[in-house]
Amino acid sequence: MDELLKAYGRSTSYPFHMPGHKRKAITAMNPYEIDITEIDGFDNLHHATGVIAKLQQDWADLYGCKRAFLLVNGTTCGNEAAIFAGTREGDTVIVGRGCHKSVYHAMALRHLNPEYIQPNVRDDGIPEPVTTAQVQEAIKEHPRATAVILTSPTYEGLCADIEGIAGAAHAAGMRFIVDAAHGAHFGLHPGYPKNPVSQGADAVIVSLHKTLPTFTQTACLLLPENSGIMSERIQKYLGYFESSSPSYILMASAAAAHRYIKAHGKEAMEEHLHRLGTLREHGTNLKHLSVAIPSPWEAGTTADPSKVIIAGKDQLLSGESIMTALREEAQLELEMATPTYALAMTSFMDTEEGYERLENALFLLDEKADAWSNSIPIAKVRQLYEVRREIGMPLSEATEATTAKCPLKQAAGHMAGGFISLYPPGIPVYAPGERLEAAGVEALEEAIDAGFAVDGVDDHKNIEIIIEA
Ligand SMILES: Cc1ncc(COP(=O)(O)O)c(C=O)c1O
User: 453 pLDDT band (50/70/90 cuts)?
Assistant: First the structure.
C-alpha cells in the first residue's frame, strides 16, 4: 500500500480532487519526527490550554469567529458533536435530505425525529441547496422543532441563503447548524462565498482538508460570538466522537496551512480566482461540452467558483464518460462523476500546468463529439428524488431493527433496512425505516438498468429490508 501510494505520488496523474494541498508540500515535515502523544508541553486537544489552544485561536481569528475547535476526525465528528450539543434526546429537527451520512448517524444515535426538506433538482441533474421558503414552510409545519440542520455549500458548491434561513430559524427559537464541509475556504477571500459562521449560523463545520492545504481528516468546528450552542457542550461531545489520541501530524499540518495562508493566501487565492476566470472564459468556446464555473466576483455569494462542473451539452456524454476520458487520455483525476456531470475540485494550490492540462484535454475531448452516443437519462434522476416515502419506523429504531435481504423487485411495501442512495451525490432515496412503494422500486430498477450507481442495492439487486413481527 505505501509503495503503491508513493508510486502514485510520483506519477503524472494530476489531482482535481481532494485534499486541497494537491500533493504539494507547504513545509518540510517528517511524519516520524513529529508523531507524538500528549507529552508535557504539547497540550491536549480535548482540554487545550497551550500550543493547541493558540492554534485554535489562530483559526478562529482567520475566520473572524469566536471559537474554532480543531478536528482530527473530519467534519464527520464535527457534525456529530454539533448535533448532540445543539439538541436534546428525542427532539424534532428540520434537516436537508441531502445531508451527509454523519448527520443521519447522529440523528439515529440521538433518537431525533427528522423532518426532511427535499432539495429541488435542476434541469442538469444537480440538486439545489435548501431554500429559505422551504425552511420557512417546514418551520410552520413543525414549530416544536429545536434545530435546522443543512449542508451549504453542496458537494457541487451551491450555497443556501444562510442569512435568511438563520433569521427564520432564530425567530422560531431554533438553532441552526451548517455542514460547510466543502467551504473551508469560504470567507478567506471576497472572491469566495462568505463563511456561514459570519452569516448567522450557530455552528459551522468545515473540512480543512477538502479545499485547504492540510492533511486528510483535518477540519474545524466554528462558533460565532452569539452562538445558541454552548461551547462547553461542543467540547463535551467532541470527547465522545473524536479520537482520544489525536494525531499531532494532522494538527501540525493545520498549523502549517494557517501559516501558509497568512503568508501567501491572498496572492494564491487571487491567482486561483484568476485561473478559474480564464478557464471559464475559454470554456465558452467549447462546442459540445459545458464548463460551469460561477463568476467569482458576481455570483460569489451563491456558488463556489472553485467547483468546476463539466457536462456534455445536449445530454450526449455522461459525467462518468467525461471523467474516464480525462483520466485515460490526459491523466487528470476528477473528484467525482454522476450520470449527468463530472466535477473537478480546484484549490489555490493547483498549478498553472494543471489548468493547462485540463483545458487542453477538454478541447481534445470536445473535438471527438461525433463519437458520443450516450443519452443521459436525466428524467430518471428526477424520478429518484421525487419518490414518495412513508415513515414506517423512526430512524433510530430502524437502524437497530433486524434486517434480511430481499430482491429489490419484491421490496414494495417493506421498510428499508439501510440507506438506499444514488451515489454520488449520496442523497438517500430511502432511509432506514421508510416504506418502499411500487413507483419507488420501479424508479430504482430503471436507474440501475440505466447504469446509475445505487448504494444499498447489491450486485444481485437485493436490498436490506426490516423484518416486521
Ligand atoms: C457535505 C459533507 N459533509 C461532511 C462530509 C464528511 O467530511 P469529512 O471527510 O471531513 O469527515 C463530507 C465528505 O465528503 C461531505 O461531503
Answer: confident
pLDDT value for 423: 77
Confidence band for 426, pLDDT divided at 50, 70 and 90: confident
Asked if residue 238 is part of any domain, the answer here is: yes
Question: And the C-alpha cell for 325?
Answer: 476520458
State the residue for C-alpha cell 455569494.
301
The reply to whether 228 and 304 lie within a common domain is: no
Among 316, 339, 371, the domain boundary falls at 371
Which of 18, 72, 76 for a ligand 1 pocket mutation test, highest count of atoms within 8 Å of Cβ?
76
CA of 383 from ligand 1 middle (Å) equals 26
Ligand 1: distance of its center to the CA of 214 in Å? 15
CA of 396 to the centre of ligand 1 (A): 21
Ligand 1 centre distance from Cα of residue 103 (Å): 10
Ligand 1 probe mutation, 207, 218, 222, 238, most atoms within 8 A of CB? 207
Looking at the structure, do residues 166 and 48 belong to the same domain, yes or no? yes
User: pLDDT tens-digit profile of 240-293?
Assistant: 999 999 999 999 999 999 999 999 999 999 999 999 999 999 999 999 999 987
Query: Which atom of ligand 1 is least distant from the CA of 219?
Result: 10
Distance 468 CA to ligand 1 centre (A): 33
Averaged pLDDT of the chain? 93
465 SS3 class: strand
Of all protein residues, the one whose alpha carbon is nearest to atom 7 of ligand 1 is 75
Position in ligand 1 atom list of the atom nearest CA 154: 1
Quote the CA–CA distance of 425 and 385 in Å, as a whole number: 12
Q: Largest Cα–Cα distance in the chain?
A: 66
Instruction: Identify whether the C-beta of residue 74 lies closer than 8 Å to the C-beta of residue 217.
Output: yes
Domain that holds residue 428: 378-466
358 residue type, one letter: L
Q: Do 47 and 149 belong together in one domain?
A: yes
Measured between its terminal Cα atoms, the distance across the chain in Å is: 46
Q: Does the pLDDT of residue 298 top 60, yes or no?
A: no
**For the chain, how many structural domains are there in total?**
3
Q: How far apart are CA 107 and CA 96, in angstroms?
A: 12
Residues with CB under 6 A from ligand 1: 74-76, 100, 102, 151, 155, 179, 181, 207, 219
